Fold:
Amino acid sequence: MGETRSTNFVWLKLSALVLILGGLSFLLWKFGMMPLFVCKARMIEFLQSLGTWSFAGFIALQAIQVIVAPIPGEVTGILGGFLYGMVPGLILSTVGLTIGSYVAFLLSRVFGRPLAERIVPRSVMSRFDYLLESKGSFLVFLLFFIPGFPKDYFCYIFGLGKITTKEYMILSTLGRLFGTILLSLEGSYLKNDQYIFFAALAGGGLLLGLLAVVFRNRLEQLFRHVYAEKNN
Structure:
């Protein structure tokens, strides 16, 4: 009897997983929302069409771009500062990213590897498989803080691991905050035609990203070493 219930529960989880992924993909396709995440003009047009609901629409877009991990989030981050200003844009982006990070983490924790392996590329999963055993808070923070790492994929990876939901939410939100501030500032500079400041900030962000890419392998080796030291 117990084995039958366990089997039925597994099939129920898999069926719910198919419905969630299929439903989300259908909605994005049906309403033509995929191009919104890479085209600033279309995104602005979409948000303006929502009128007083544009704040909620923007938060939803930020959340979706985390859950549908391959979608880049830089456009939405800059757009928040451009449309709403530095502080409101930062707040709205942070709320959306936090919601998206929580949903992705929760989906992975509930549905397990079948979901995570459908979203996270095998190469990324194998590179960061050691994180599944990690409970190091500072390491989690660094991975979300340093540019160039696949933060949205981490939401699903950590969902399979041992970190608690509370720790994950605090660390991922704080880790994303620096990058969100920079993107919101860039959008604010564009809004106010402060192109010199925008170019300087964007150039600095690009340099940090390039450095992270160049030294990514060394950083990953360092993180693995830190994890090994902590767990020996």
